[in-house]
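Good morning C.,

I know you're traveling, so I'll keep this short. The sequence:
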Amino acid sequence: MKKIIFTLLIIHFSLIIANAQWVSQNSGTTNDLFSIYFRDSQTGWSAGWSGSIIKTTNGGENWISQISNSSNNLRSVYFVDNQAGWVVGSWGTILKTTNSGINWSSQISGITDYLFSEYFVNSQTGWTVGSYGTILKTTTGGSNWFSQSLNLYDFFYTVYFIDAQIGWTVGGYDHGTTKNGSVYKTTNGGINWVPQINGLNNILFSIYFINSQSGWVVGNGGNILITTNGGTNWNFQVSGTYQNFYSVYFSNAQVGWTVGYNGIVLKTNNGGGNWNTQTTITNNTLWNINFISLNNGWIVGDGGTILRTTNGGNVFIGKTNSDIPNKYFLSQNYPNPFNPVTKIRFEIPSNGFPTKTFGNDRVVLIVYDLLGKEITTLVNEKLQPGTYEVTFDGSNLPSGIYFYQLRAGDFIETKKLILLK
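The C-alpha cells, ready to paste straight into the viewer:
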C-alpha cells in the first residue's frame, strides 16, 4: 500500500512540473529585476536593483552580468537594435550602450528625480519619465536631454509612443487616503501633454498600444482599462482580482498579458473581454513582461525572478504515465473535428535522446494552417522520455483544416486536424 501511494505521489509531482505554464530561468542574481527587453528570440537584457544589468544570447538559458558602473536602482531597459540601448533609474540615472552592453556610459539628465521608464522611436529620438511630473526628451540619442515636464505631483511610471508624435505616459500620486491615477497624451512629440484620465482612485503603472487607437492601462486594485479611440474614452475591464498590476503587453488586438503582485499573471485571448489566470511557480512580485512573438515571452520580478514561456503561457504539457515508450509516436488529435479545444498525445522514447532538432535538444510541436504558415508553437522544450499530452485551443482561429507537426531528433511527423465551429 505504501509503495502504491509513493508511486502515485511521484506521478502527481511529475504532472505538476510538466504542467508549468511559465518556466523559471536562472538569472544568476538575487537582486530585484524591474525590466526586461528582447530584440529577438535569443538576445535580451534585464535591469534592476543596485545597478544590475544582465544579458542573454540564447533565449535566457544563460544570463551574463554586465558592468553598469552604477549602484543606483535601474528601473527600465530599452534597445533600438542589438547594439544601442538605454537604462534609466534612481537619482536621474541614464546609461547608454552602443556595443550591446559591453560598455555602459552615463548621460546627463540634469535632474536628481527617479526615472522609471524610457521609450525610443529611433536611435536619436526618445523620452524618459519619472517622479514629480518629470518628462525628458532627446533628439540626439541622449547626448542632450531637455525637459517637457508637467508641474504635477504625479509620478509617471511608463511612457509609450507609437511614432515620433503620438505617445502616452501614465502614473499618479499616493497621499495616504488620497490616490490619483492619470493618463496623459501628446500628439506633437511632447510639446503639449493633455490629460485623458485624471482623478481615478488608483495609481496606474503601465500602458500599451497596438496602434493609434487601441490601448490598455493597468494599475493598483486590479484595474484594467481599454480604449479604442486613442484614449478619448477609457472603459474598465473585469480582471477578477484586486491585486496590483505593474506591466501590460499585447501581441495583437486580441492576445495580451498583465502581471503584478504575488506572482499574478493574467492573459486574454479576446482583447480583454475575459482575463484568465495563468500558472506560475513564484509568489514574488512581477514587475515587467515582454514578448517577441505570440508565444515567446519573459517576465521579471523580485529576487532575480525570470520566467519564460514558449507557448504563450497557456498550453499544458502533461505527462500521462510513468511508462517509457520504445519509439517515437504522434497520435491523432481528439476530438477531431473539434470546437474549440482538442488534445494531442505524443511519445518520446529513451533511445531518442539526446535529440538534435534544429541544432538543439528540444522537442518541438507546431500547428500550421493550410498554406503552411505557423499558427502557434505548442511545445519547444527539453522533455524527458515519456508519453505527453498537450491541449490546443483554437478559440481565436476560423474554422478550417490545420496541421500539427512533431520534430524530435531525426523524427518528423505531421497530422491533420479540423476546427469546426
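Safe travels,
E.
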